[in-house]
Each structure stands twice: as structure tokens, then as C-alpha cells.
Design brief:
about 325 residues; 13 helices; single chain
């Protein structure tokens, strides 16, 4: 891959990150609400108030606060939470595994199911299979996510009581590692199912459209004329051709999944980063909210960067374009 092209991508990513850091600092200080009243109780003694102001850096000029903020963000030392009085990074780390499991499992399942259905629909043009996939995909992408989740919660958790109504673990939790894993999987099944149902439709429609276009190309017709098997033509030639945009969409969907954790974890009352972000914003917890938004922006930038890298690795035309610039 061309070195100049890679350096330009890195510099542009760093520029976007710098802009996000500045906006993150400014917006959280001009938004309605008072951070000082959140952490300082009127009944505190003057010494306690002064100590808290010094602890959170609220006694310093705005410019100095900005440099302290930049240092904290770049070193991932996000300070103390206004609400819990615990280190923000410790709060995020305790909630991160639940969010990662929820988002990664649902992303893998929805993408695999959608890609498989999209290929099946493209191979069965004008048949019942294509019509079914198109309608299912349209229905899956037309409803708001929280509505689907609330309906599933009402039907499968309250009416029929197949899954638990809320939480990541039972109260009190079961004893034994294997029992805890089973209980956790039982609690996470419905949230994962809801995200899979909402996500596979877009994948199916997107892959179907790509495959229909590719299957009509001359090299596919030539491969059929050479007597290659249908499986080799579909997966060895056609699917390989549409792999770059699929990988790009897969990487670009990561930030949306992380931000969607706010709604999903709130609906199902899960202990994750999404509920942490919602609590931080509603409680004017600026260190926690700023850290959460910073990490979300960082994930978005990294996903964009790796999408470009992966696209260049799997598509020779991108590498050739990079050398000609």
C-alpha cells in the first residue's frame, strides 16, 4: 500500500480527532446545567467545597482546564465521576464487557444472516425466495428499534415469560461459574435477538442488490461458460468481488452499534456503557459523558481508518489508485 496515501489517512484521522476533542470540551461547558452544583452540596463546609473544586480542576482558568482535559483524554485518565465519585475509566471498564458481548454477537449474527439471505435472493430472481427476502428486509428496517424491543419484551418476557424482564443477571445471582454463564446468556438472548432482527434486513437488501449487479457481469458469464460449479462462481468470483464494500459497511456499522447500546441497554435495563452514558448526560456528569463520547468518536475514527486499510488490501484498484497519486 502506498506510504503517502497511508500518511494522508493518518493525518486526516488525527485532524478529525483533534476537532472532536475541542468540540467535546466546548459543548459540555455551554450545555444547560451546572456541573458545580452536581458535585458540591450546599451543606458542605467551605474547606470541602474548595477541596472538591481543586480535585475536579474547577478552580482553574478555562484555558488551563482545556489543557488538563486534553491531557486526560490523550492518556485515558478521565478523572472522577461526579455522580459515583469513582474513576471514570474504572466505571467504563466494569461495564464494557457486557456492551461488547451484546454488540459483537448481534453484529455477527445479523450480518451472517443478512448476507446469506441476500445471496439466496440474488440467486432466485423473480421467485418466491427473493420476494420473501425483500419483504422481510423492508419490514425489518421500517420499524423503530425501541418499538421492536418493547414489543418483544412485552410478548416474550411479560406475556409468555420465556425470557427475564430486565437486568443482566438474576437477583440474587446463581452460584457457580457455569450457572452464572447460563443465567447471563439467558438474560442476553432477548436483547441480542432484537438487534439481530433489526439488523439483518439492511444486510439482506444491500447484499442482494450487489450480487444481482455482479452476477450479470461478463466474467461471471464467462465462468459459467467454462463449466465452473455454481458454488465456485458465487463464492469464489461474485462474492469476492463485493467483499470490499461489505467489509467497509461492517466496520462502519460498529459506531452505530455502540451508540445504539444506549437504547437497547435502557430498554432491557442492562449494565453497560449505554446506560452509563445516559446516566452521565442526564446527571450533568461531564467527565463521564465526555469520556464516553470521546471513546465513541475514537471508535468511529478507528473504524473509518481500518475500513480504508481493509478496502485497499482486498481491492487492488484502491492500491493502484494510491500509487498514481
Amino acid at each position: 500500500m502506498n506510504r503517502k496515501w497511508l500518511i494522508r489517512r493518518i493525518l486526516s484521522s488525527l485532524g478529525v480527532l483533534a476537532a472532536v476533542l475541542v468540540l467535546n470540551f466546548v459543548l459540555f461547558r455551554i450545555m444547560p446545567g451546572d456541573a458545580i452544583s452536581t458535585i458540591i452540596d450546599p451543606s458542605f463546609s467551605p474547606e470541602a467545597k474548595a477541596l472538591l473544586r481543586e480535585l475536579y480542576g474547577l478552580d482553574k482558568p478555562m484555558l488551563e482546564q482545556f489543557f488538563i482535559y486534553m491531557k486526560q483524554m490523550l492518556t485515558f485518565n478521565f478523572g472522577l465521576s461526579f455522580l459515583s465519585r469513582r474513576p471514570v475509566w474504572q466505571e467504563l471498564l466494569s461495564r464494557l464487557p457486557s456492551t461488547l458481548i451484546l454488540m459483537s454477537v448481534s453484529m455477527v449474527l445479523s450480518s451472517i444472516l443478512g448476507i446469506w439471505l441476500g445471496i439466496k435472493a440474488a440467486l432466485n430472481r423473480g421467485k418466491f425466495v427473493e420476494t420473501l427476502v425483500l419483504r422481510l428486509g423492508a419490514v425489518a428496517t421500517s420499524f423503530p428499534g425501541f418499538f421492536v424491543q418493547l414489543v418483544l419484551l412485552m410478548l416474550l418476557a411479560r406475556t409468555f415469560a420465556i425470557f427475564p424482564l430486565r437486568g443482566s443477571l438474576s437477583v440474587p445471582p446463581p452460584t457457580g461459574t457455569f450457572a452464572i454463564i447460563l443465567d447471563y446468556a439467558w438474560h442476553m438472548t432477548l436483547p441480542v435477538l432484537s438487534l439481530t432482527l433489526m439488523g439483518f434486513g439492511g444486510w439482506a437488501l444491500y447484499v442482494r442488490n450487489l450480487m444481482v449487479r455482479v452476477l450479470g457481469e461478463d466474467y461471471v458469464l464467462m465462468a459459467r461458460a467454462r463449466g465452473l460449479t455454481e458454488k465456485r462462481i458465487v463464492y469464489g468470483h461474485a462474492f469476492r468481488t463485493i467483499l470490499p464494500p461489505i467489509l467497509t459497511i461492517l466496520l462502519m456499522s460498529v459506531p452505530g452499534l455502540v451508540s445504539g447500546a444506549v437504547i437497547t441497554e435502557s430498554v432491557f435495563s442492562l449494565y453497560g456503557v449505554g446506560t452509563f452514558l445516559l446516566e452521565a448526560v442526564s446527571g450533568h456528569d461531564y467527565p463521564s459523558a465526555g469520556a464516553a463520547f470521546y471513546l465513541l468518536a475514537l471508535i468511529t475514527i478507528i473504524s473509518n481508518f481500518f475500513a480504508d486499510i481493509v478496502y485497499g488490501l482486498v481491492d487492488p484498484r484502491v492500491r493502484i489508485e494510491g500509487r498514481n497519486r
